[in-house]
Design goal:
Helix 5 (102-110) links the parallel strand 4 (96-98) and strand 5. Strands 2-1-3-5-4 form a five-stranded parallel β-sheet, sandwiched between helices. 47% of the residues lie in helices and 16% in strands. The chain is of the alpha/beta class. The model is unreliable at 1-12 (pLDDT under 50).
């Protein structure tokens, strides 16, 4: 899918996207915000309004209080991505994936039906982050053999 068709697809669907970060991910979060709004997403931002210290668990809990896991997608950033991912995965029904490559972001959606992409802001470039976000948002869950595994994650 090229960039223009992704733009028109996202603008048609007006998908709600939650975007949160601590101070380490602030700059990348704001850059992602600008790109995603320009592509037509409805973006709701969580985290500080500047680079001053913000505790990532507070940001994650606030975001997850607002998420609709069956329809929303979210992007979380912190320095390593680990803290936001660990915090998010403590919430029932949430599957958050820490990704460093586009292939991992695609697999998180297609195989694991992840609702949340966690990014290590201090270890990836803005271009890599944007590529992963776009791939994550356009990828659907494959279902099939993966559905049973998702049920096992949730112990259903």
């Amino acid at each position: 899918m090229n960039e223009e068709s992704m733009k028109s697809n996202s603008m048609t669907h007006k998908q709600r996207l939650l975007l949160g970060s601590d101070h380490a991910g602030y700059s990348m979060r704001m850059n992602l915000y600008a790109h995603l709004v320009a592509e037509g997403y409805e973006v709701i931002v969580f985290g500080g309004e500047g680079p001053e210290a913000v505790d990532y668990p507070d940001v994650v809990h606030d975001l997850l209080d607002e998420i609709k896991p069956e329809s929303d997608r979210a992007i979380l950033l912190c320095g390593s991505g680990n803290g936001v991912c660990m915090t998010a995965n403590h919430h029932p029904g949430i599957r958050a994936a820490l990704c460093w490559t586009t292939e991992l972001a695609v697999l998180a959606r297609s195989h694991n039906d992840a609702q949340i992409l966690c990014l290590p802001a201090r270890f990836i470039t803005m271009d890599a982050a944007l590529e992963m976000v776009r791939a994550f948002l356009k990828t659907d869950f494959e279902g099939g053999r993966h559905e049973g595994r998702i049920r096992k994650i949730e112990r259903k």
